[in-house]
Amino acid sequence: MKPGIHPVSRPVVFRDRASGFTLLTRSTLDSQRMIEWEDGSTYPVVDVEISSASHAAYTGTSRIVDTAGRVERFERRYGRSVTARP
């Protein structure tokens, strides 16, 4: 590897703004805001909008919404019947 071309990787805390979930990991991101972690050390904190703790696909709260009859319109357009075929 060439020296001096790779970004510096450091410990950073990612905080989910929606759920308050925090995760200490390594990242090349940096922040001026600091947070005290459970071990008593302070680390830069990066706020994120969505994480696995608040995303609907990971929490199991996702649902399929059929807006404006998309399924029925598809079935009419391509000739499928509403009843299931064996």
Automatic annotation (TrEMBL):
Keyword field: Ribonucleoprotein, Ribosomal protein
Cross-referenced InterPro entries: Ribosomal_bL28/bL31-like_sf, Ribosomal_bL31, Ribosomal_bL31_B, Ribosomal_bL31_sf
Keyword Ribonucleoprotein: yes
Residue ranges crossing the lipid bilayer per the database entry: none
Gene3D superfamilies: Ribosomal protein L31 (4.10.830.30)
Source taxon at top rank: Bacteria
One GO CC term, this protein: ribosome
NCBIfam families in the record: L31, PRK01678.1
Protein family: Belongs to the bacterial ribosomal protein bL31 family.
Designated name of the protein: 50S ribosomal protein L31
Source species: Streptomyces cinnabarinus
